[in-house]
Design brief:
transmembrane helix; MFS_trans_sf; Four Helix Bundle (Hemerythrin (Met), subunit A); 2 domains; 76% helix; two-stranded antiparallel ribbon; mainly alpha; globular; Growth Hormone, Chain: A; membrane; transmembrane
Length: 711
């Protein structure tokens, strides 16, 4: 009996251990997958979009200023209700930032709960756009209802422990109401005119900032008031239910069914319908008289890409900080969530004041591009100030982090307003790329940025849990640094239209240095200079992402436009000859390494009589297949290129006209092989560090886009 009991107990322990290991693996896999997938997708797209903007011909010119409008302001009742709605919508998002991690076993999951609100917001945006201003009361009422139902369900799910599906559903319901941010913005655009335009747009941003403040303020007060209660996570949302109820009552009392009544109260001379018809007719007449025969669709698309990329990146930056800072200070300083909430409130309050001060005293005094670049530098400096290279006393460290956060967060918020104004001034009237449509697309991109920032930030914090005290803080600063650099890159290429020579040269040289250096340094995941295989990575890393791209760019570079074509051909030839030599050398090193290790030369492919198998994984086999095709192509391309140049110089006759297209295909293949290669486990310990893999993989698609699209 004792033996049976012992065996049953042992079986229970083994089963529990296996279940625990499976859960740990799943949690780590979810965090890693979120960080890798989210960062790769977000960063690579944001590197690609500015390149596409340039290929489309750049942004449209700024529109000529319209005739002065009559002075008008939104009726006071409408303004108050709109303010309450904006504050409530933003508080819905931030009210769970301090405590949502208590509802999930993993930080990454809490990030997805935060992001789930954006699913409802996208749906709500599509719905509320159809309402416009004509059905403003209906849109506002639906927002209040979604606020009550969504927050009520979240409160109930939290108290009764209904589980993650109900929590996700509640946030989606709450998010539907966020779509009305479009309608509230259009209220300010439509009713505030003349001298009242700027003050009311500033007031609108102030409403948004108040909402961002209100959410964590409610959560912090709840935590301080009821520190031992199990339902502390639900209290702030319960309060938001009453906010929604009060908002609904105010809408019913103060907002008339007919928009014309509000327009009359505001002193507008024309109804919105009549005004829309007049503006459309005037725009059509102006377009017929001034616009070229061909509609500037490409530049409109470039404007659209710039608008959505800027909106997504700035909101991702904000949510990276908002969702990550709370966790970072709790982990680094051992603070309670309520104390972290106070820090959050102080930083956001400074941001709101900075926005108001900028709009009141500085906006319009210098060109938009001046402010954009100034604010980008300020944001970068603020992010760098957040890094904690060594352990400082807690008061000094906290002060450093808060000052850096204030500078970076405030700069980001002000930059958003300047960039939005910059894009709207270039909107194409009476087209898909009108100001109204741009604002809708801008709002959709904002929701995408919120989702990306919240999930990536929480996943990053999840992965560094259990490390040193300052790891959490530095992980947050690293994610913000990546975002700041992407933002600067987008601004320089798409807005300031600096030469692509800078981007191509810097990225190619960095890759040509970083990949070989990582291979040579074991601490960076490499196999070290004593291994023959290392020199395969060194050779190919210098050849394709560096010399191959620079050789291709020799024909396209702005700096070489004044050179005669033969001189550019010479630079191209020298680069590509080195690529060929390094490619052959790289293959020789690889062949020798496999011979020494007793490994096959085909990436683990084993052929049997009636079957075949990949013993070293599909990724390694794909890398080998693409690599063989590229090396074989080089053996053909190099001599053909030399002969083509010789005949062209001697006889002035072009031969092998396919040489250029074939070279592009080889270069794309080399970049693909490089991208696969950096993810392979070359040392039996996972290979290169995750950060290096992400950086290389995010940069390569932009180089590929340049190769494919540059004419």
């Amino acid at each position: 009996m004792d033996t049976v009991h012992y065996l049953q107990l042992l079986q229970f322990k083994v089963t529990s251990a296996n279940a625990s290991q499976t859960q740990d693996w799943f949690e780590e896999d979810l965090a890693t997958g979120t960080l890798v997938g989210g960062t790769l997708l977000f960063a690579s797209v944001l590197l690609l979009l500015p390149i596409l903007v340039r290929q489309l011909g750049g942004l449209p010119a700024e529109n000529l200023p319209a005739e002065p409008q009559q002075d008008a302001a939104p009726p006071l009742a409408l303004l108050r209700v709109t303010g309450a709605l904006c504050i409530g919508v933003m508080a819905n998002i931030t009210s769970i930032i301090l405590t949502v991690q208590t509802e999930a076993e993993q930080l990454t999951t809490s990030g997805y709960i935060l992001a789930s609100e954006c699913i409802g917001a996208i749906f709500g945006l599509l719905l509320f756009k159809e309402f416009g201003l004509a059905q403003l009361k209906t849109a506002y009422k639906l927002t209040a209802l979604s606020m009550m139902v969504g927050n009520g369900l979240y409160t109930l799910a939290s108290v009764q422990s209904f589980g993650l599906p109900t929590l996700f559903a509640s946030r989606v319901m709450t998010g539907v109401g966020a779509g009305s941010m479009y309608n509230s913005a259009m209220v300010m655009v439509h009713f505030a005119r003349g001298q009242h335009k700027t003050p009311h747009m500033v007031l609108y941003q102030f409403f948004v900032a108040c909402g961002v403040l209100l959410g964590p303020a409610l959560a912090a007060v709840s935590l301080l008031s009821f520190p031992s209660m199990e339902i502390k996570d639900a209290l702030a949302n319960g309060i938001m239910v009453f906010w929604g109820a009060g908002l609904f009552a105010a809408i019913m009392i103060f907002i008339p069914d007919d928009i014309a009544t509000l327009e009359a109260e505001a002193g507008l001379l024309k109804s919105s319908v009549e005004e829309a018809k007049t503006e459309s007719a005037e725009a059509s007449a102006e377009a017929s008289a001034e616009r070229p025969v061909e509609r500037p669709a490409k530049r409109g698309l470039a404007l659209f890409l710039t608008m959505i990329s800027s909106a997504a990146i700035r909101m991702a930056q904000r949510l990276l900080w908002e969702s990550g800072s709370v966790i970072a200070v709790e982990e680094t300083y051992g603070w309670a969530a309520s104390t972290a909430g106070v820090m959050f409130i102080v930083v956001v309050a400074v941001m709101a004041l900075a926005q108001y001060a900028f709009s009141r005293f500085r906006a319009g005094k210098y060109p938009d591009t001046f402010w954009l670049h100034t604010l980008e530098v300020a944001q970068l400096l603020g992010v760098l100030l957040m890094f904690q290279p060594w352990q400082l006393p807690v008061p000094l460290s906290a002060l450093q982090f808060m000052v850096g956060s204030m500078v970076a967060y405030s700069s980001n918020a002000i930059w958003a307003g300047v960039l939005t104004s910059f894009c709207v001034k270039r909107s194409l009237v009476n087209s898909f790329f009108s100001a109204e449509n741009l604002m809708v697309l801008n709002q959709a991109a904002i929701f995408v940025g919120i989702a990306a920032g919240s999930t990536i930030s929480r996943a990053c914090q999840d992965l560094v849990q259990g490390s040193s005290a300052i790891s959490s803080m530095n992980a947050l600063a690293c994610t913000l640094l990546v975002g700041a650099l992407l933002q600067i890159n987008m601004s320089l290429i798409a807005i300031s239209e600096v030469s692509l020579d800078i981007f191509v040269t810097v990225v190619s040289l960095l890759l040509g240095i970083l990949i070989p250096a990582a291979a040579l340094v074991p601490a960076w995941g490499g196999t070290g200079p004593s291994h023959v295989f290392t020199w395969h990575i060194v050779s190919m890393g210098i050849a394709w992402p560096c010399l191959g791209v620079l050789g291709f760019w020799a024909y396209k570079a702005d700096a070489m436009r004044e050179w005669d074509k033969n001189s550019r051909r010479t630079v191209h030839m020298l680069c590509m000859l080195l690529v060929g030599v390094l490619s052959v050398a790289g293959y020789v090193f690889l062949f020798q390494a496999h011979q020494e290790n007793g490994e096959g030369q085909f990436g683990g492919l084993v052929l049997g009589r009636n079957e075949w198998a990949l013993k070293r994984g599909a990724a390694r086999f794909a890398h080998v297949v693409v690599g063989y095709l590229v090396v074989l192509g080089v053996l053909l391309q190099a001599p053909m290129g030399l002969w083509k140049r010789h005949v062209l110089i001697r006889d002035q006759v072009k031969r092998f006209t396919w040489h250029g297209v074939f070279g592009q295909a080889l270069l794309i293949g080399g970049l693909v092989a490089t991208c696969i290669g950096v993810w392979l486990d070359i040392n039996g310990k996972g290979g290169f560090p995750l950060g290096l893999k992400l950086a290389v993989s995010a940069a390569l698609p932009s180089l590929g886009a340049i190769v494919l699209t540059r004419s």
